[in-house]
Amino acid sequence: MASLPSDNEDENLSDSDDDYVPSKPGSDNSTSSDSEDDSEDDQPLSNFFAKGTPKYQWNKVSVSLAPYTSQNLDDEPEIGRPIHYFQLFFSDELLDQIVEQTNLYACQVDPNRPLNLARSELEVFLGTVVYMSIPGLPRHRLYWSSATRVSQAADSMSRKRWEQIKKNLHFNNNENLPKDRNDVNRDKLFKLRPFLDNLQQNFANQVKPEKLCVDEQTVPFKGRSSLKQYNIIPKTQ
Fold it and tell me: Is the whole model's pTM more than 0.85, yes or no?
């Protein structure tokens, strides 16, 4: 039966009062003298590092980067341009519908001043709106200002035309809007309903891969709206 170790760890230590001093590279501990050790201890720390530190040699390890083979790479979907993924959801049918409703609303407001919006011009307008989120200027007129001009927006469309499209942008016919606001069956998203239905159908038509990650974002809003969602944080016990 093995004996139990002693509770006093100091009994296992050496009785020698000499401290262990590591040797430098290329030196022999057996030939070093006490006088040399004492002289080195008296030197400042900066002199020790000035003499150089030990150099270590690292061994190269080869790592195999399988599991991808030529067959696996062929199965991977091809990465397209950002405009390609935008067009997957904003189809030509959806853009044509927005153009139709926008021109209709402009004629309803003032029949003598039609907007005459085309799909190509709407695509430029949407492109400027997306790009404006990158600089993040506080007011849209600053993108056309001489001091803070952004060429990606100012060279694509005039400020006056951009404001006209923004003012008349519509997705549904206002004449079909229920007049009774207290109606229980009244759709709160009536003005966006055709746009949301078309966009939701485009999402459903996309082929889902085996591994899919869906992210979400919460936008802070303090205005008056019945569509607000609240993030309730439970109190800790």
Answer: no
